[in-house]
Write a structure and sequence with these properties.
By secondary structure, this protein is of the alpha/beta class. The protein has helices at 2-8, 46-60, 70-75, 77-85, 105-123, 144-151, 206-211, 214-226, 251-258, 261-274, 280-286, and strands spanning 10-18, 65-68, 89-92, 129-130, 155-156, 177-180, 185-188, 193-196, 199-202, 232-235, 275-278, 292-296, 299-302.
Length: 303
């Protein structure tokens, strides 16, 4: 089955990320589940949803990187071990799904170090890839990157090179590059964006994946591949779960959070069939960074 699916996929190898968290992990809005003490009492959906995603990846003969909350590894250690045992890469997504720029550097260091240690102890594997909750590495929180290097991370996949709600850095490089942080090198693999209708926008994950038609996805993949650039696609487990409980959210937030849930599993299956996907590490081996930047005076500059 897997071999026949792989034969249908074409083009260069792309990265696939699964931001591993529960359905109630919403950034920057008040819900009944703001306090982590309430999380064990919430209806559990992540294991069922992860089973679906793991099945789709297996069906396509694809692998992925799973940036995972430390809390999730504490609550569901067998699930996180199974992800690793199936040959996927487990990365770090923080411990409590807190926006980076909402923390002090000391808080960020302590929480990230705690999460990484738990994930490594759970999987028995090195955890070297980091993704910030809500893609919350911004110009104002570039201070987090040297901390990641100090903690032993080798790759960051947190930056959206476009404007977005609670993250994004407009004008940020779109290709993977090596960043000299002053505390060690860190490979930056930005989230994929495309140019459409006079603006730069993500297309291959989250609400964009759920909202946009397949024609737009084909445009985004073709545009990036035409520039010699691999695409990074991503999904959250809740996004293939139309039966999840609904939170009372502000109107725009609610639209972004729930649009396209019913069709997302089918769209994800079609995407995995059409293009080739591997882990972040796989893609960086196939497309090593060609540029080098450095952090100087709190800004990104060519080295």
């Amino acid at each position: 089955m897997a071999e026949s699916r792989v034969a249908e996929a074409a083009g260069p190898l792309n990265a696939f990320c699964v931001d591993s968290e529960e359905w109630f992990h919403v950034c920057d809005v008040e819900t009944p589940y703001v306090d982590p003490a309430t999380w064990r009492d919430a209806p559990a959906r992540v294991e069922r949803n992860m089973d679906v995603i793991l099945g789709l990846l297996d069906e396509a003969g694809a692998k992925g990187t799973f940036p995972t909350l430390g809390w999730l590894a504490e609550a569901y250690p067998a699930l996180v071990r199974r992800i690793a045992d199936l040959g996927h890469e487990v990365g770090c997504h923080g411990y409590y799904h807190r926006l980076v720029y909402g923390q002090s550097p000391a808080e960020f260091r302590a929480e990230t170090e705690r999460a990484r240690k738990l994930l490594q102890d759970t999987t028995g594997q090195p955890v070297v890839t980091y993704r910030a909750p809500g893609f919350s590495i911004t110009r104002a929180s570039l201070w987090a990157l040297p901390i990641l290097a100090e903690l032993g991370f080798e790759v960051d996949v947190s930056v959206v090179p476009a404007t977005r709600d609670h993250g994004g850095i407009a004008g940020f490089p779109r290709d993977p590059f090596t960043l000299a942080t002053g505390a060690g090198d860190l490979v930056m693999f930005p989230v994929s964006v495309m140019d459409a209708a006079g603006r730069r926008m993500p297309f291959s994950g989250g609400g964009y994946l759920r909202l946009l038609p397949m024609a737009a996805l084909r445009h985004g993949f073709a545009q990036n591949h035409g520039a010699g650039r691999p695409v990074m696609a991503y999904i959250h487990p809740r996004e293939i779960d139309p039966g999840q409980p609904r939170l009372r959210l502000p109107a725009l937030k609610g639209f972004k959070y729930y649009v396209g849930l019913a069709g997302c599993e089918g769209k994800l299956r079609a995407m995995l069939r059409r293009w080739r996907f591997g882990t972040v590490a796989d893609v960086l081996r196939a497309h090593p960074p060609r540029s080098r930047y450095e952090l100087r005076d709190g800004a990104l500059r060519p080295a």
